[in-house]
Design brief:
The complex is a heterodimer of chains A (205) and B (575). Chain A has 205 residues and is mainly alpha-helical. Chain A starts with 13 loop residues before the first helix and ends with a helix. Chain A is built from 8 helices and no strands. Chain B is α/β, with parallel strands linked by helices and 575 residues long. Helix content of chain B is 24%, strand content 18%. Chain B contains 14 helices and 21 strands. In chain B, α5 packs across α14. The longest helix of chain B is centred in the C-terminal third of the chain and has 20 residues. The chains are: A mainly alpha (205), B alpha/beta (575). At the A-B interface, α3, α4, α5, α6 and α7 of A face β3, β5, α6, β13 and α10 of B.
């Protein structure tokens, strides 16, 4: 780990971490929280944003994540699959980062991957990424059904939630993902005239 | 320049300090500005079109602020600069950069209204300011001409929410679709909405470009469309050759003469080497933020002012206030599955509902509390509309899709993207003797400066107001045909904190209130100390009461008024 990264690292108490998590939970990004929280810049360069840590996942873990990513976001007529956009790389970057939130996610993700291995091994004496595609799909579908019905363990529900959150977030922040979801902004305009006529018609204005 | 050549020292470079320096230097006054943070240039340091995927962790914030694009330097937890709090607690958001908190703010700039300045006389509540709206109107006009504010047509103004004259305001951008739905819902409830007053240019002003309706304003604005103190005030002030700025200069004391009744200058810590230095001038202006200025005065006591400088009334640090806020997250079926269209606009609500209940209407509505609140759609960070996707954009959408994956998940996200929005109410706070600052005994920060202790308790009046606001938001949601997916009022109530810690809205004001009587106020109506006649305040500290309106425009208007008074007294050798 790069030591300079931690130089200005600020410890924040647990209560504050929970508040920040709560604050980020909904879409009402309460304008109030703009300055709450901790930030002192390191003279960080906003235009050369290289990460300074090594990715830490092993080959097997990355393979499993790649498989899971394609279950979560397969290719369809509007956009490619998660593996084509290398989203598992982003997950590796995320869980390897030396910050409290990401370290917490790392625990959840690694525990979930280990549990999938255990379940696969129990069924076929093979680890998850050596199992057949059908078996893998079956195991993942079981997990999703448990989440839908609230019948599984809390750990696996958390694993599913974080996994989907990170794959979706990683995917739809790429140019291909943004095109799929229909984000067409971030380009300068000479005026802002409100919704186009077709939208007004569709919404009864 | 020798320090004795400065006529005025301004502590702080934010909204108040910037406006003060701008006006003084235009009049030829030599000004020295001290800023506790580092030098900052929004023209060259703002990431404008960069995408989250261009950065580590998709641009999410981390404790070391390494990957986010947002402009803030500072926050409530600054290493080595602690504070303490009791009661419901306090978030002390402090900027440590040139421009202060104007680099990173919502830029909503309404005027205070006639009832806000004279609430005792006109509504039999709270107490009066020593000035009326009519007296302040010309200063609001001048401030808006310097800052550049878009807003509604003057014919649309509602009671007690004055707007700029048409020859001064800039034309507002059109509302976005969710805002149109909000306005329609409000109209259905008999509540008027109109364009928000916002310090963002829609036409060029001086060397500042008009907004191009893209990029997140919280990153700052390199083209100068969104007002900040550096591009809008400090840069033109520097051009006069009359302004000297020292950054990394943490003021720690107002230095007085032997009598203790006259300010001689300011002592500050040079953060680059820890040395203490003193600078002198004829006039000292504190614009360090309401809380930092109160702390400075309480830390500047002397033999003749044992309870802090300018504090013979005992009111320095007293009657602090902040804006109350509550909100809902909504899922709006009418916004599902719409064809892609550009909804960036500005990062600030394009329209809002000013407080609408007054006099008999207020009584009839059972609104049994002082002041009021305004309602708007939250727009910060652009999430929830068809905005720039970040990781957080998808959190509420995934909350609607338990266990979904595969092509079905992709279809779900396409359907709901842009259909989750926020609805927020901002409320006034009651005049409150239980919100005040003291100095923590025996505790200093890394610069050796005694730290403040915040005492904060809301009143029953505040609870009633915010409960009423929450009900109104639910009614608006109902009229929009929306599903409430998150209720912040309920969430805080579960934690036993219906109202959040003081300072949570970053609208903290008060602590050196102005008035007509030295026994019951700290400053006269020109923001000048009764006790120390060459000491002025030019931040939120002079506020007497706090309405539901965002305070920044009023801070700047009073800074301008104080600057006029300083110029006049310097010219007449009366200071």
């Amino acid at each position: 780990m790069n030591t300079t990264l931690n130089k200005g690292f600020v410890s924040i108490n647990r209560r504050r971490v929970l508040q920040l998590m709560a604050a980020s939970a909904g879409v009402v990004t309460m304008p109030c929280d703009l300055l709450a929280g901790t930030t002192l810049d390191q003279g960080g360069d906003k235009f050369n944003p290289q990460i300074t840590w090594h990715k830490t996942l092993g080959d097997a873990q990355r393979k499993t994540l790649t498989v899971l990513g394609n279950f979560i976001l397969p290719a369809d007529e509007k956009s490619p699959s998660a593996s084509e956009l290398k989203i598992a790389d982003f997950i590796d970057e995320w869980v390897s980062a030396p910050y409290p939130d990401q370290q917490q996610d790392k625990k959840i993700i690694l525990a979930g991957l280990a549990e999938l291995d255990r379940q696969a091994y129990e069924q076929s004496s093979e680890y998850f990424n050596q199992s057949s595609v059908d078996q893998q799909a079956e195991l993942f579908d079981q997990l999703a059904k448990h989440v839908q019905k609230g019948t599984g363990t809390e750990e696996m529900a958390q694993f599913f939630e974080r996994l989907v959150y990170l794959f979706v977030g990683g995917f739809y922040t790429t140019p291909q993902g943004m095109a799929d979801i229909g984000y067409v902004g971030n380009r300068p305009q000479t005026s802002f005239d409100g919704p186009p006529k077709e939208i007004l018609r569709l919404t009864g204005f | 320049m020798a320090t004795s050549d400065y006529q005025v020292i301004v502590v702080g470079s934010g909204a108040g300090g910037g406006m003060m320096a701008y006006r003084l230097t235009q009049a030829g006054v030599n000004v020295l500005m001290l800023e506790a943070g580092r030098d900052y240039n929004p023209r060259t340091e703002t990431a404008m079109f960069n995408l989250p995927a261009d950065r580590g962790l998709r641009g999410e914030n981390t404790p070391d602020h390494r990957f986010t694009f947002d402009a803030r330097i500072g926050g409530s937890d600054i290493p080595g600069e602690p504070y303490t709090a009791e009661g419901v607690g306090f978030y002390w958001g402090r900027a440590r950069m040139l421009g202060g908190r104007t680099i990173h703010w919502g830029r909503v700039t309404p005027r205070y209204g006639p009832d806000d300045f004279k609430s005792y006389t006109r509504t039999d509540r709270e107490i009066d300011w020593p000035v009326s709206y009519e007296e302040m109107a010309p200063y609001y006009d001048r401030t808006e001409q310097i800052v550049g504010v878009f807003g509604p047509d003057e014919g649309e103004a509602v009671y007690n929410s004055p707007v700029s004259p048409n020859h001064i305001r800039q034309k507002p951008p059109a509302p976005r679709l969710p805002e149109m739905l909000f306005a329609r819902a409000c109209a259905g409830m008999g509540i008027k909405t109109h364009a928000t007053q916002v310090a963002i240019l829609t036409s060029p002003l001086a060397d500042r470009q008009a907004c191009f309706y893209a990029t997140d304003c919280i990153r700052g604005c390199s083209i100068g469309a969104g007002f900040d103190s550096v591009i809008g005030c400090i840069t033109p002030a520097r051009r006069t050759g009359k302004l000297t700025v020292i950054t990394d200069a943490m003021a720690c004391e107002v230095v007085t003469d032997k009598t203790g009744g006259r300010a001689k200058g300011v002592k500050y810590v040079d953060k680059k080497n820890g040395e203490r230095k003193v600078v002198h001038a004829k006039v000292v202006v504190l614009a360090a933020s309401a809380m930092e200025s109160c702390r400075l005065l309480l830390n500047s006591g002397n033999a003749s002012a044992p309870n802090g400088l300018a504090n013979s009334s005992g009111l320095v640090g007293r009657y602090l206030s902040d804006t109350l806020a509550t909100g809902l997250s909504l899922q709006v079926p009418a916004l599902e599955n719409l064809p892609p269209h550009n909804e960036d606009g500005t990062s600030t609500p394009h329209l809002y509902a000013p407080w609408w209940l007054h006099g008999r209407d207020k009584e009839r509505a059972g609104a049994d509390f002082s002041g009021g609140y305004k309602m708007e759609m939250s727009a910060f960070g652009l999430s929830g509309r068809q905005g720039l996707p970040t990781l957080r954009t998808f959190k509420p959408l995934l909350g609607l899709s338990k266990g979904l994956y595969g092509v079905a998940l992709k279809q779900h996200l396409r359907r709901y993207y842009g259909s989750v929005v926020g609805l927020t109410a901002f409320a006034s706070a009651s005049l409150n003797e239980n919100c005040y600052m003291s100095i923590e005994t025996g505790k200093t920060d890394r610069w050796g400066i005694p730290v403040p202790r915040f005492h904060w308790r809301w009143t029953d009046d505040d609870y009633r107001r915010i409960e009423h606001a929450n009900k109104s938001l639910h009614q608006v949601a109902g009229h929009m045909g929306a599903v409430v997916i998150e209720d912040y009022f309920d969430r805080y109530r579960e934690k036993g904190e219906i109202l959040r810690a003081g300072g949570s809205t970053s609208h903290e004001v008060g602590g050196c209130r102005m008035g007509d009587d030295p026994a019951s106020s700290v400053l006269n109506s020109y923001s000048c100390s009764w006790d120390v006649p060459n000491l002025y305040l030019a931040d939120g500290a002079p506020f007497v009461t706090h309405s539901e309106k965002n305070p920044t425009l009023t801070i700047m208007a009073f800074a301008l008024r104080a600057a006029d008074n300083i110029i006049e007294r310097l010219e007449n050798n009366a200071v």
